[in-house]
Amino acid sequence: MPASASPILRLHAVGRWSPDQIQITRVSTTWRSNPEVDHAIDQAWADTNARPGVNLFDGPMCRLESWHAAPARLQLTLSDTTYKRFLGTNLTHPQLADRFGPQVLANPVGVSPALLTADDVLMMGRRNASVAYYPDRIHPFAGALDPDDADPFAAVRRELREELNLTDPDVPDVYLTGIAEDLSIRQPELIFVARTTRTRAQIESALDRAEHHAAWSTPATSEAIEAALRSDETFTPVAVASLLLYARLAFGDAYFARHARTFAAPAAQPPAQ
After folding, report:
1. pTM score
2. For residues 228 and 242, what is the distance between their CA atoms, to the nearest angstrom?
3. Which residues of the chain have pLDDT under 70?
């Protein structure tokens, strides 16, 4: 991606937080709709369901209302939203926020880990052509925060178990590295590093191909990550954020800043709590 290209993501917070440094507060939603937004959501749902082979489920999700980041603690304020709202706003009509304000976006919280293997390789997946968004692109083994527990670390482990058959002992370390926003769909994403005791070959052999048709990997070195970021690989914005935030912790702030300026817009102030 050339340095003159438009930013594809925004990094709202960067750090290194363990599970005991995350504070979750649940509140009533501030999501607001109107007849035009409701119509856009219903139409997007109907249009997507009409595609061959698509069977949508309007599951519950967690909406990111606000956050406050400090070196020793990350506070997240969450409410409830649904996949239908996500599909009809962020995924298909993010421009509604330009007309009616950010309150009309569903803004569910995604969780995306950079997976670090026992043989020091970073891994992500190559998405299938049939997925709802970003088909055929490189993306972490990611998911969304479940409102039943609203535990970001449990959500990461659940996704790694479902997509790669990784048990909790297979993943001894998970830490949260930041909050990123995909500027194309304006969705907030919690970015992680997850360290596994399995090797790249073991991960590749366990891949569930329901969502990813193949694995992508790169050595976890400064040279290899820089080469990946400069390559023509079709990374999603969240995949880029995952690489950048891993690199910040592994290689320092100067390395991170040098590469982040190519992809990231300036951070915004967090929404008022």
Report:
1. 0.93
2. 12
3. 1-5, 132, 268-273
